[in-house]
Amino acid sequence: MTASASTTQHAPGFDADRMREAIRDNVWLHSTQMAPYFEPEHRPFVLVKGDGSTVWDANGTPYLDLLAGIYSVNAGYGRRRIVEAMAEQAMALPFINPFGYTSVPAATLADRLGDLAPLGGEARVFFTSGGSESVETALKLAKQLQTARGYPHRWKTISRRVAWHGTTIGALSVNGLTSYRSVFGPLVPGARHAPMSHRYRCPYCGDAPACNLMCYDEIERLVEFEGPDQVAAIITEPVQNAGGCIPPGSMDYFRKIRKLCDDTGIVMIMDEVICGFGRLGELFGSTYFGVEPDVITTAKGITSSYAPLGAVLVRKSIADEFINESAPPDLPAPVAAARTEGFMHGLTFGGHPVACAAANANLDIMLEEDLPGRARETGAYLRSELEAALGDHPNVGDIRGAGLFLGVELVADKATKATFRDDGLLEWLSDAMRDRGLIVRNDGRNDPTTQLCPPLVITRDECDRVVATLAETFTELGRRLGTIGTAQATG
Description:
This protein is of the alpha/beta class. The chain has two domains: 3-74 and 371-490, Alpha-Beta Complex (Aspartate Aminotransferase, domain 1); 80-368, Aspartate Aminotransferase, domain 2, CATH 3.40.640. It has 17 helices and 15 strands. The protein has helices spanning 16-25, 68-71, 80-92, 104-116, 131-148, 169-174, 178-181, 214-226, 253-264, 285-288, 316-319, 333-340, 353-368, 371-390, 423-435, 460-481, 486-490; strands at residues 47-51, 54-57, 62-65, 123-128, 156-160, 191-194, 231-236, 267-271, 295-298, 310-315, 396-402, 405-410, 438-439, 441-443, 449-452. Strands 4-10-9-8-7-5-6 form a seven-stranded mixed β-sheet, sandwiched between helices. Helix 4 crosses helix 13. It is globular and about 75 Å long.
């Protein structure tokens, strides 16, 4: 059903004028220019209900949510089992002080994740309340670990250009998006950035028959240049989100980073805030790429976003280095503190009992229904249908991704890979897709890419709708770019 064909009916108790007034006067949306909301004719997009892969706005119009909220409602909308688990825990015990205390759902969840995580067979779990906090925690953990080992000068980090790791000040420092970083300087010192592993546009192997792993070589050169004895951690996403859903060009890419970290004592962090909990077709994205990092950051899909929760999963051998009650008397004070005070970090809402109850119920659903397997199978189907329908489109340059984390990169010229940078055109594209009943992200933070990251419960019939709608919308895009004539578009 398209938006125009749906029945217009306001949600019960919804006062459209009152809602517009509240948003105009009091709401401050995240990373959003609020000026358009002051215009009298502006109609804010307010969602009121969801079920499976579909959400409804306040007018009763349905949309397929191809962004799963924000890469996060993995188990789909309307999961009563999760809601009931939260309600039961809230009635029994809504909160517990995480500084020295824990709850039954938090301990249960940690035990389960410790066994499931690809971290050498066992892991310790530090809970946060979101993705940025998880990344911030992992970076602090790596730096304190290096100090406890006697290397307080190992404080530099390596991440990748254009990468997104969050918005808190440490996470923002390892972000690779200049536009987001530039207005908040100076950031945390020592953050270094290597090139992306981006096969379609790689300056080293983009026109070669296969990836030559020079993108990894650049990381190794950066470590050598900065000094291995000064680098605390390397942090990467299994599939890079910002820039347009970018997997590495070779399955050996992360394995080589693993060996580099083993050889130098650098902590290997995999940021799985998006890629964890089934998104790539495995419970963890690290498993998809056959690598065991030292630390995994998670959030989003851990509760399918029914409650705010994040977790930092740490290899047990590393976590055990924080278990010391005494230190030699001649150690410098920072080293002694780092070695004896435990992990010197905490968050009021880390491991919130209600959120952990949601995560346990969500994990039950994931394992019982094999949602990672569904993501693998449905993702393969969606990708094959996209390639069949759009592979020859003059404005489709690349179709890539893993599992149900797919991107369609758009180009102005298919032969030369010439891109177009037109935020207005991308905004039009998002609006045109929404008018046809799809919520997607047309990411312009690198080269324009339509990202498809639906709930893992999306059906094949819904995938067929997605492909047909994208084909229709991209045809209209081609007319606007002049690559498709009117006769071609209507013939």
